[in-house]
Design brief:
Mean pLDDT of chain B: 83
CATH topology of chain A: Amino acid/polyamine transporter I
CATH class of chain A: Mainly Alpha
Shape of chain B: elongated
Number of helices of chain A: 16
Distance between the termini of chain A: 18 Å
Number of strands of chain B: 12
Number of helices of chain B: 18
Low-confidence stretches of chain A: 364-369
Strand content of chain A: under 5%
Structural class of chain B: alpha+beta
Number of domains of chain A: 1
Largest sheet of chain A: 2 strands, antiparallel
Order of helices and strands of chain B: HHHEEHHEHEEHEEHHEHEEHHHHHHHEEH
Largest interface: B-C, 28 and 34 residues
CATH superfamily of chain A: Amino acid/polyamine transporter I
Distance between the termini of chain B: 66 Å
Chains: A mainly alpha, B alpha+beta, C alpha/beta
Order of helices and strands of chain A: HHHHHHHHHHHEEHHHHH
CATH architecture of chain A: Up-down Bundle
Oligomer: heterotrimer
Helix content of chain A: over 70%
Strand order of the largest sheet of chain B: 1-2-4-5-3
Largest sheet of chain B: 5 strands, antiparallel
Radius of gyration of chain B: 30 Å
Strand content of chain B: 5-15%
Strand order of the largest sheet of chain A: 1-2
Helix content of chain B: 40-55%
Mean pLDDT of chain A: 84
Structural class of chain A: mainly alpha
Number of domains of chain B: 3
Chain lengths: 369, 534, 399
């Protein structure tokens, strides 16, 4: 009864994935930093790299329809090793919750409320996230489509107003940087925004049509990737080499809008959009973590865990970096993306390989059930 | 979250009252069957009624040689005395004389009187005291005859009622001007006149232990979702309340989220609106004693739709509908945005405007937040006073309000001019969307507090919280925010804009599952589509 | 159930307390800020220090002063006041932030930079380098990157002492002056973001318009013309009004500006309604670099001297040719001048980098030498589309 009422459609999931990736338009600065004017190439390369990784996720979902990542681990590795894997995943999801909360905290602190203490911002932000997570997956994903449309509209509107100061020659030259920069840039693109959608493996049990998971993931990925690409390309075209210095190029770009002194100060639109998108991303990640814990401990409901982990997230989001400089150091040295690679690529590959070796396939599983 | 507090509080409050309810022993008394002795019956009824002065007991004799004694019981003022005189007493007293003297009145007398003597359209039988008393309490006449252990309830309701008037709350420029009245039957007849279709169903029930109010569920069979009808009936049946004086009582008992500030059940006093809604597959609940009819499910966007949207041509109405959304946004957010922008995000104000606003703020002792709270409070006071006061005084009030608040407060240096403008536009915008005005007032305050503490971020957080809350709301199984959340592009034709009628071929998706097609897709003029090819 | 209630109550109370306590983080009422409308940066008399002049709109005194002004103007005829509409705060210190801190000791309101539309750099400071002074305007949260930037002839502080003619504040008057796209080809508009891009680039030199204070019939008057040329972050020279025109032809779009053309001994004024410049670098087989500059402009005849009908088709062609050569000459003048200054203000270097990144690596170290002798091919195309309200000059028709 409970499970049926929490079911979501493929389209809803697709837009949730899109919304999730769109949120990462906040964090394009490492890409700009690595690849300068060629950030847009790195986004394209990053998407290419993401393709096989997302294929891993979808084939995991196909082999175990209607199962969450935690349940898959238990099936594939048995209860003890599986639990170890699950703990690692949950740890990673929680980490992502901390990081994305911190990101929005930095954004708000850096551009909207410079002297407001970080805890105040984080408490309010995570309060809403917790509320959303408690309302369940169905509610959480129901507004994704609306948010995607809003985000798209804002991107389009802002881009149109920026047409007059865009210089497409800023996107040149191509392939002039050392190989290392491309690797770092595309790796960051693939790991930090794109493959974080591994969290959606925790939402698959709620899918009404279990076979739709791959479609939703690919569709959402495509929408999100297109948004990210246009966003990065536009920022580079407007700012040129200056983009690689900034901590939030997109926000700065919005600040530059001035069409006939009527359409100015569009940064508000962007700020509101990015808060909305980051809210969505954080609530999905929080759900993934908390739902994972409830499955790991075989609890009836995840809901009572939400406020606790929301509170933990506030504390860890503050503690995770001691300064924004440290954060950009982590991002710019590639530490963050290498760290993420372990969870987003290596662990799922092991899971999939073991599953293949032990001969789990979608059809078999269906018969067993 | 609030639900628990509300439940707890409700429990504590009601605890003390529960004991009293146990004392009701009259129940057994009422279940008693009528006896064959007329005197006993009258005495029993008189005891139960406690000698109320408006209960009329008319005892008389009829039949051959006036051998049968009988009694009519009715409530003075509820029954039509003309019908009693001409259609009940007259036939009994005069026509019964002609009956064969040998006829045995003892056995079948009641049936004979019912079938052959009373020239009244509707007659029912009452076997126990409960039915008998209910009969005359609802305005009918109870006829009891000595020797019969059942009474007859003869329909002659005839109390004074208000004529069908114009709706006071929802005025229109174009469209029917009639409104429901307090009388249930008048209201149902208004609906029946609009939808002359056998599938228009009206199911009655009585609710309220003490008031015994008539409630009527109206829907169109085959259009309304059967699960919805079932759900409405179940929720109505589950109401355990002593009195129902207005449809609001019912609304508060059957709504999905009693702890939400948003109403999930609609109300209107216009028959055409109700007709349109039940034609979309909704269910209407008419309550006796109030012209306000409930409709369910009720969606957020219905607050932005008016009857006139469909009567006028679509283009201007689409513009108006967008205006209503903007007005709602203004009334909810204007003070919050003003506070956030002036105290946090001054870079958003155009430079010249900033100079002007800064000039207007010089010497004002309160913070922008305090200013707006004061002004909002003043506005609410004025509004409330305007409604409560007798009409002639109300006009004086508005002058005082306009002068004192608008002029004097500014020149006295209490309030800045921009704030007066902001609050005025906020206040005016409320009246554009009257059905969401109550939630807007609360939302406005919440957002204002958030804006004063966290600026634009606070407003965004507040709006997100509202979105989460609204998205989780349901009204009888239909998502409250549909078709926006979840996004349903087919239903958008009647959401942000009002598309031409000939384009709106389907009924709203969430509502009806059966008869989805509303009308054929047809580009006017209607005749051309057939002859066009030839 | 009870536990949950407790939890929820705690959450509600904490958030309520938080909301109440938080009243004063970023919240600032409008009557507690001083709105900065212009900033001037000069070299201070003490070594290594800068002097900052901040023009602040005096909002509170405005009402009073305007009434004073009207009474004065009625008695005196010429209103020279308006001084209380703004005031200039000044202090010296090693950097912008320390000066701002010093100013808090003297002025009751917090200085607010988001509406600062104007930054003027003093000539002396610009010669020493502006990177450190501009860091605040690029990094801090408040200042906008769309502010206009100037280099003052002399001291920047002097500009702010000029009484405005139309606006209430000098800085606002200068901003309005730059907002208007219609005007002269001599007037180049540079925003902070443009200058910053120039500071980041390795070869492209940043420019900024020059502003000076002129005496006109005893009254001080601001005047914007010419371009200051930076090399890295230091001022290395300036282009006069005539010399700066080429920059605008190549780099920006000209709207409604007059151009004087000499033709057959007469002069004609062309109104350039729109123009566009494009830079295309070419690398020849021998490794030498050629820059192709294409300028397309559209305009119409606005006025002429003499009796030759320039609107006649044959003459119009001549006029077109003449206009093209005038533009070409203006661009050449500018390029030659910048060659003297060793400053690649057009971004030729960056354009090579964008199109020919591989070759650029070898060119970059010796770019200064290459720029001095670089072959620039200027191709101007002008379309004359109209001749104003009259089709013929104001003279008797010739037989």
């Amino acid at each position: 009864m409970k499970k049926s009422s929490e079911q979501i459609s493929t389209v809803q999931l697709m837009f949730s994935v899109a919304c999730f990736i769109q949120a990462s338009t906040l964090l394009t600065y490492p890409i700009h930093g690595f690849a300068k004017q060629e950030a847009w190439i790195c986004v394209l390369l990053g998407c290419l790299i993401s393709l096989p990784i997302i294929w891993i996720y979808t084939s995991l979902a196909k082999r175990f329809p209607g199962k969450s990542l935690i349940e898959i681990n238990d099936i594939v590795f048995g209860s003890i090793v599986g639990k170890i894997f699950s703990v690692l995943y949950i740890y990673f999801f929680l980490n992502l919750v901390f990081l994305s909360s911190r990101d929005i905290g930095n954004f708000v602190g850096g551009f909207l409320l410079p002297t407001t203490p970080l805890p105040a911002v984080l408490i309010m932000f995570l309060l809403v996230c917790c509320w959303a997570v408690r309302k369940g997956v169905k509610t959480m994903t129901s507004y994704a489509k609306l948010m995607v449309i809003i985000a798209f509209a804002v991107l389009l509107f802002n881009s149109l107003l920026l047409l007059n100061i865009m210089k497409f020659s800023n996107l040149l030259p191509i392939f002039s940087l050392p190989l290392k920069n491309y690797l770092e840039g595309s790796h960051t693109t693939a790991m930090l925004p794109m493959c974080e959608l591994m969290a959606f493996l925790m939402l698959f049990p709620n899918l009404r049509n279990a076979k739709g998971s791959a479609k939703a993931l690919w569709g959402g990925f495509a929408i999100g990737a297109i948004t990210l690409f246009f966003n990065v390309a536009r920022d580079t075209a407007v700012l040129g080499p200056y983009a690689s210095l900034l901590t939030s190029p997109t926000f700065l770009v919005a600040r530059l809008i001035n069409v006939g002194t009527i359409f100015t100060r569009m940064e508000v639109l962007y700020a509101v959009t990015i808060i909305i998108l980051m809210f969505f991303k954080t609530s999905v990640l929080l759900y993934a973590a908390v739902f994972g814990i409830s499955q790991l401990l075989k609890l009836d409901s995840y809901k009572f865990l939400v406020p606790t982990f929301g509170a933990i997230a506030v504390i860890f989001a503050i503690a995770v970096f001691d300064s924004t400089m440290y954060e950009s150091y982590i991002a710019m040295t590639g530490t963050a993306s290498i760290y993420a690679t372990f969870f987003e690529l290596i662990l799922p590959v092991i899971t999939l390989t073991v599953a293949a070796v032990r001969g789990f396939s979608g059809k078999k599983e269906a018969v067993l059930l | 979250m609030f639900r628990f507090i509300v439940k707890k509080a409700a429990f504590w409050l009601s605890k003390s009252q529960i004991k009293d309810n146990k004392k009701e022993k009259d129940q057994n008394e009422l279940q008693r069957k009528l006896s064959k002795n007329l005197k006993d019956n009258i005495a029993a009824i008189k005891t139960i009624m406690g000698g109320s002065s408006d209960v009329v007991v008319r005892e008389f004799c009829f039949g051959p040689n006036q051998c049968i004694s009988a009694a009519l019981i009715f409530i003075d003022g509820l029954s039509d005395t003309k019908i009693i005189n001409e259609s009940i007493i007259e036939p009994l007293m005069y026509k019964s004389v002609l009956v064969d003297e040998q006829y045995d009145f003892k056995d079948d007398s009641i049936k004979h009187i019912e079938t052959a003597m009373l020239s009244v359209s509707e007659v029912e039988r009452a076997d126990d005291l409960n039915d008998a008393i209910d009969g005359f309490l609802y305005g009918d006449v109870l006829l009891m005859i000595d020797g019969a252990n059942r009474g007859l309830i003869i329909n002659c309701k005839g109390w004074d009622k208000r004529n069908i008037g114009e709706p006071s709350g929802e005025t229109v420029v174009r469209g029917p001007r009639e409104s429901f009245t307090e009388n249930l039957r008048t209201s149902t007849s208004l609906l029946r006149r609009k939808i002359k279709n056998p599938s228009l169903m009206m199911e009655s029930m009585k609710l309220g232990k003490k008031t015994g109010t008539d409630v009527c569920i109206v829907y169109i069979k085959g259009l309304a979702n059967p699960e919805l009808i079932q759900e409405v009936k179940e929720r109505l049946a589950a109401i355990n309340i002593d009195s129902i004086l207005e449809s609001g009582y019912i609304e508060q008992y059957i709504e999905d989220s009693p702890s939400s500030i948003f109403a999930t059940i609609g109300n209107t006093e216009k028959p055409d609106v109700v007709a349109a809604k039940i034609l979309e597959g909704r269910v209407a609940i008419i309550v006796d004693g109030t012209p306000f009819v409930l409709t369910a499910p009720y969606l957020f966007i219905e607050g932005f739709q008016t009857a006139e949207d469909y009567y006028f041509r679509p283009y201007y109405m689409s513009l108006l509908r967008i205006t209503r959304y903007i007005a709602y946004a203004i009334t909810v957010m204007a003070p919050a945005i003003y506070v956030a922008v002036t105290t946090f995000h001054r870079e958003l104000i155009p430079t010249d405007l900033l100079y002007t606003m800064a000039k207007a703020r010089e010497g004002i002792p309160f913070s922008a937040f305090a200013e707006s709270v004061i002004m909002l409070l003043t506005f609410e006071i004025l509004r409330e006073a305007g409604i409560r006061l007798p009409r002639p005084v109300g006009q004086a009030l508005s002058i005082v309000g306009a002068l004192v608040i608008g002029q004097a407060a500014v020149s006295a240096g209490l309030i800045g001019t921009p704030m007066v403008i902001v609050i005025s536009i906020t206040a005016v915008s409320v009246f554009v969307i009257p059905s969401q005005a109550d939630s807007a007032a609360i939302l406005r305050l919440i957002l204002l507090v958030l804006a004063a503490t966290l600026g634009g971020f606070g407003i965004t957080i507040g709006l997100l919280g509202t979105l989460v809350h609204l998205a989780s709301l349901e009204s009888f199984g239909v998502p409250y925010l549909s078709p926006l959340v979840p996004f349903e592009s087919a239903d958008l034709k009647d959401t942000l804009i009002r598309a031409p009628l000939w384009l709106m071929t389907g009924r709203p998706k969430g509502m009806s599952r059966n008869d989805k097609k509303r009308r054929e897709y047809l580009v006017p003029p209607a005749g051309n589509s057939h002859g066009g090819d030839k | 159930m009870k536990k949950r209630l407790k939890l929820i109550c705690t959450m509600l109370i904490t958030s309520a307390v938080m909301l109440n306590l938080s009243g004063c983080w970023d919240s600032r009422e409008l009557n507690t800020i001083g709105i900065v409308s212009g900033v001037g940066l000069d070299k201070a008399t003490t070594p290594d220090d800068i002097e900052m002049t901040v023009q602040i709109a005096n909002v509170s005194g405005e009402q009073q002063s305007s009434s004073m002004m009207s009474s004065q103007s009625s008695s005196n005829g010429t209103a020279s006041t308006g001084g209380s509409n703004f005031f200039n705060a000044k202090d010296t210190g090693p950097d912008v932030l320390s000066i701002l801190h010093k100013l808090t000791h003297a002025y009751s309101r917090k200085l607010y930079f988001s509406h600062n539309d104007l930054i003027i750099l003093g000539e002396d400071l610009a010669k020493e380098g502006v990177r450190d002074s501009l860091d605040f305007f690029a990094r801090s949260y408040e200042p906008r990157l769309t502010a206009y930037i100037f280099v003052a002839k002399g001291k920047a502080a002097d500009v702010f002492d000029v009484q405005p003619n139309f606006e209430k504040i000098t800085a606002a008057e200068i901003t309005m002056l730059m907002n208007d796209p219609v005007g002269s080809i001599d007037k180049n508009v540079v925003q902070v973001s443009d200058l910053l891009v120039g500071l980041i680039s390795e070869t492209t030199s940043a420019v900024a318009p020059m502003i000076e204070v002129k005496e006109q019939s005893g009254k001080k008057q601001i005047y914007v013309s010419g371009l200051a040329v930076f090399k890295k972050d230091k001022l290395v020279g300036e282009l006069s009004a005539m010399e700066s025109r080429g920059y605008k032809w190549v780099k920006s779009n000209i709207e409604y500006s007059a151009l004087k053309v000499d033709i057959e001994g007469e002069t004609a004024e062309i109104i350039v309604t729109s123009s566009k410049g494009k830079i295309t670098p070419q690398i020849n087989d021998d490794g030498s670099v050629k820059i192709k500059v294409e300028i397309t402009a559209e305009g119409s005849l606005d006025s002429q001297t003499g009796t030759v009908n320039l609107a006649e088709l044959k003459n119009a062609k001549l006029l077109k040719k003449a206009t093209e050569s005038v533009i070409k000459k203006e661009v050449e003048t500018t390029i030659n001048k910048t060659r003297e200054l060793d400053a690649d203000i057009f971004g030729f270097g960056d354009s090579i980098y964008q199109r020919h990144a591989r070759e650029w690596k070898t060119l970059k170290p010796q770019w200064d030498q290459i720029y001095k002798n670089i072959e620039v091919d200027i191709d101007v195309k002008v379309e004359l589309v109209g001749s104003g309200r009259i089709a013929k000059p104001l003279s008797p028709e010739k037989e």
